[in-house]
Amino acid sequence: MKQIFSLPYGWLVPAVLLLTACSTEPKPVPYGNANCTHCSMTITDVRYGAELVNDKGKPSFFDAVECLAAYVNRKPEEGRKASFLMVTDFSNPTELIPVNSAHFVRSAALPSPMGMNLLAVSTQEAARKIQQEQGAELLTWGQVLAIVKNDEKLH
To answer: Which residues does 135 contact at the CB level (< 8 Å), separation at least 6?
Structure first.
């Protein structure tokens, strides 16, 4: 039987599929279909999710900024080795932003799923707007980690 179609680089397709399957890129948070790695609650509120992608490309999803922070506080080596630490942009919930470029806001007027009232936005302008409208406190990722660590000591 004569071969009609052949791939001279037959190894290329499986290799590309394998490389994309092992990607260390962040994945969309599967709202409603995943439990938080830290607190085990179902992740439902699209404004507050977070994600850690480890150095092997495995994603871990979180219910809120404070759950990601608590996880990183408890497992600092995983946080340091992570390929990505991402939080949902409160102003644009379909976007994940790196924690090191995010602007964090704490406001009792905007309660987060775990009750620490933390959220993240991608721009300083968005953070200042929330601060002015809600009387919020502006924070860095380092400050978020410290606040969460102090709160955990109380429990």
So the answer is: 107, 109
- Position 20 in a domain: no
Residue 22 domain-assigned (yes or no): no
Task: Provide Rg for the chain, Cα atoms.
Answer: 19
Report residue 25's pLDDT band, with 50, 70 and 90 as the boundaries: confident
DSSP of 104-131, one letter per residue?
EEE-TTS--TTSS-EEEES-HHHHHHHH
More confident of the two residues 2 and 25? 25
- In sign, the C-alpha dihedral spanning 9, 10, 13, 17 is negative
Is residue 17, in this structure, part of any structural domain at all?
Answer: no
Closest among 49, 58, 65 to 23, alpha carbons compared: 58
- Examine residue 34 and state whether it is found in any structural domain, yes or no: no
Number of domains comprising the chain: 1
Residue pLDDT, tens place only, 29-87: 999 999 999 999 999 999 999 999 999 999 999 999 999 999 999 999 999 999 999 99
